[in-house]
Amino acid sequence: MLKKSTVKISGLSHWYGKGSMKRQVLKSISMDIAPGEVVLLTGPSGCGKTTLLTLIGALRKVQLGELSVFGHELRGSSQKTRQLLRRRIGMIFQGHNLLRCLSAEQNVQMGSDLLKGLSYRDRRTQACEWLNAVGLEDQKRKLPHDLSGGQKQRVAIARALAARPKLLLADEPTSALDSVTGREIVDLLKKLALEQSCSVLMVTHDPRILDVADRLLKMEDGQLLPSIG
Amino acid sequence: MTIYFWDKRRIPLAWLLLTRQPLRLFVALAGICFAGILMFMQLGFRDGLFDASVTVHKLFDADVVLISPRSMSSISMSGFPRRRLIQAMAHPDVVGITPVNWNFLLWRNPKNLSTRSILALGFEPNDLLLKDPQFTSKANTLTIKGRVLFDELSRDEFGPVPAWFRDGRVVETEVAGKRVRVSGLVSLGPSFGADGNILTSRETFLELLPGTPPGSIEIGLVRLRSDANKDNIVKALNLSLPTDVRVLTKKEFIEFEKNYWRSSTSIGFIFSLGAAMGFVVGCVIVYQILYSDVSDHLPEYATLMAMGYRLKTLLGVVAREGILLAIMGYLPAYGSAQLLYALVRNSTKLPVEMDLQRAILVFILILFMCMGSALVAMRRLADADPAEIF
Asked: Residue B6 and residue A57: Cβ atoms within 8 Å?
């Protein structure tokens, strides 16, 4: 294997709680994500999908096992390493989590503001370009409050991609949307991610969008089921 | 360099967080403004009252002032031998002296005949007393025995003397049981200790107050050559003169009086406490606003952390909100205080004025208030866990 994996996981386990309340949510997970690969992760709720996502996204401390993103080992990593790593990982949330007080354009610029060495004007231009790419050129000045669910999720995608990540983590990005909009969003996500040669790991319940995946992973009770993709 | 910073700038998150919630911003600014006005007024009253205690002191034409070491304040002046002032004349830099008698006498209101204590200053009409250039001609009228100059800014309780005098009436009344005639009006102003003032010749003064030893005065005014070093002369005079007299610069003389009111009365404490209450009220309001602002936006802060923003950056946002609130709240407080000062000046004749020092002090207090509250509100940010937002 010449190309380095974007994400490399082996024997990853995770527990919540303490003492008698301690509960294992991930049981020895092992998987890889190659650069530019689109991986979909499905499974019943409470099976540990989101936990896995937050671990890969460097939002949680790794307890047991190995997990490396872009070649950086996350177990025992410092707060600083994880913060810097997060800059290179785009995240799209179920509830879009846009900043309510910022316009669509400003929300996207919060993403491009993370890029070093670019002037304000450049970052602003890029933010506009990303909004154009998700088809919201005429909604730039609107606050999230005035946007529809689909439009908000488009802004969230633009924001995640504006930081030029090489890995995109999406947690049920279509769950709050109707089927047509959901489909559009996922197609857009895949198209833009591929243009940036960005790997995508998407957690979803939605059976209608499974076909966008290069690979489909199923999880149950904290374990990864044998691959079917 | 500035261009470089300008290029590095990011979305002004703190500004937008504040301005896109106009109602909350308004409440916050109203609170800060209220606290600021409260502090301005209390400190203004305090300083105004202290300034009011030296209205006459400031007007004296003197560089150095001699008083008795037993004098505590303008309401309890003791005498010292007039010879000391003449001895001071021996210093080569001294160009002029004015011995002044200073005491409180009972003034009879010429209209309703009630009596009230008034500050009487006695001096030789040929000597310089006040800086006012028009004063000399008025002082000359005092050479006739039994004449006084009345302070037109004295409180109304002393009677309608200025009005009567301007109407051309002969205003005669009793001071300390003896008949006097008003021969002119001067403009001094009431002070803390004295509700009104009259000036008279030394001769008349001794007549009104026969118990005063003829060689004794309460204040000695000393004028120096314009290029003289006051501090050195005060030192030299203090060394050369006996200990029954105390030599002060005019500034020290003013401070001596203010200090009495500051330290020996509860005025300073009361008004400082008032200002402190304003500060505390402001702190509570700003803290409430910032805390609920951070709480409301906690998921958004967590999102920013998940995107890779540093906690430090986010703390900076809250800090900047604090600074912005301080500046935006201070400006209307400053403006309102100016208006209220003018109102107080007109209705109480108290010299309440905005001075730079107080303007800066209140700004620093407001800044402290906002930054302190922001600092406490920041602790809430520690609860922003990016792992929880998925």
From this structure: no
